[in-house]
Structures are given as structure tokens and as C-alpha cells.
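Teaching assistant here, posting this on the class forum so everyone can see the example we discussed in section. The complex has four components, and the goal was to see what a joint structure prediction looks like when all of them are supplied at once.
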Amino acid sequence: MKYDFTMDQLCPATYAFQVIGGKWNLPILAILSENECIRYNELKRRLTGITGTALTNCLKELIDYGIVHREQYNEVPPRVEYSLTQSGKELVPLIESMVAWGQKNIVTR
Amino acid sequence: MKYDFTMDQLCPATYAFQVIGGKWNLPILAILSENECIRYNELKRRLTGITGTALTNCLKELIDYGIVHREQYNEVPPRVEYSLTQSGKELVPLIESMVAWGQKNIVTR
DNA sequence: ATACTAAGTATATAAAAGTATACTAATGGA
DNA sequence: TCCATTAGTATACTTTTATATACTTAGTAT
């Protein structure tokens, strides 16, 4: 391994895991990767079991990480659309190799 | 994205993130990837800040996932050596692409 | 007037993950 | 005899992460 991330607090791999980790981040990224853009409540409906609080927090985090873009239209009732940014889109093939590894190596305990 | 991991409890990508997630799993994999095999206390010394309890738990988990192999020699004082299994080794290039993504896309908040 | 909508916020609570501390075994060395 | 060593276990505790519930805003439809 070329990069030593053992001791480094700002290690890029740890960072990537922070971005995609957590209970809902990966499912959110999956849905966003399949839609050019999607509204808050539609996202919530597809993420069976998520609460509004959780969805809001996750989206905020992903926006702060520069993975997700938020577009707000000042209408009533409000319309807010979420989409992947460029760096979010670059994460997708990476997640796909995770899927491939998982499919090959999963161990049911 | 070809695989739908939104609703699936046993989704391969979620599984992969479980395996590498947690505070110490990634640093442990990094050290193991750089050593053919390594003893418990040497691993502990290199993982600055980890407690024995935490290291033991993580190693157990990684062994259960089939990522790490444990070889015990019945000597006194005891000697136990840890190494990556084949599926652990297959995880390394994947982590390396995480590093690459992180280096390119990291956002300091 | 009242109810309904979307996209949240605020607050409290529960569950999960991680940490600290003390303890164990068998042997070798001072 | 007493201390050090390795690779842990057992227990209690703290911190972090996730959830449940009630409330908000402004306009539109009944």
C-alpha cells in the first residue's frame, strides 16, 4: 500500500469512509446515482424507515462534504431538489467495486 | 448503478462498509497489508492509542468476516500471529482507490 | 375558517460503539 | 520470592450515532 493512513487524522481513506459511512449515506448515494435530481419527500419515501430528522442531517453532511448539491426553488409549498456533484459521481464506480467485492466475499455469520 | 442496495439488509456494499468501517478496522488492515504477518503486541504498538480490548474485538470481528487469519503458537509467553486472508488481500486495491478519491476530493470543514 | 402540503427545526431519548481499569495464565529471570 | 512477559477476559462507563415526537412557514383547496 502506497499511502500510510495509519496515524494520520486526515487520512484520505478514513475521510472517504466517513463520507460514505453511517446508516443512510450509502442508500442515499445509491438513489441519487439513479436520478438526475430528486426531491426531499420522494427521497424519504424511497428510503424505507428513515425519519425526516435523519434524512435532513445526512443530506446536510453530504452537502458539506461536497458530494451532494441542493437546489431550492422559492415556491409554496417549497420545492428542493438534490443531486450528485462531480465528486459525488466519481464515488459511484468506487461503490460499485465495493459491491463486487461484497458479492464475492460476503460471509454470513 | 447496476446493483440496488437501497432496501436490501444484506447488501454487499453495506457489508463491505461494515467490514472496513469502525474506528480501527482500516488502520489494522493497512498495517496487515504491509506485513506478511504480525504479532498482537506489535500491532498494538503501531496503532497509537488503541486499547487491548478494542484491538481484540476488532481482530475477532475481522476474523469472523474472513478477512484476517489468526495463527496461535503454544509457547510461553504466548505467540499469536495475524495476517490477511485472500479476501482481505483483495480488499487492498479497493482501499487504495478510496485513498485516491479522498486525496482528490477531500473537503476540510 | 380550517385543513393540507413540502421541507424542514427543536428537543428529548434510546441504542450502539468505543474506552478505562483491573484481572488472568504459565514461564523465565533477578 | 517477586516481578516481568504475552495475549488476552470481564466489567463498568462514556461518547457518539440514530430515532421519535411535536412544531413551523406560507400559500392553496374545501
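For the discussion questions: Residues 22-24, 51, 53-54, 57, 75-78 of chain B lie near DNA strand C (CB under 10 Å from a C1'). The mean pLDDT of chain B is 92. Think about how each of these relates to the inputs above.
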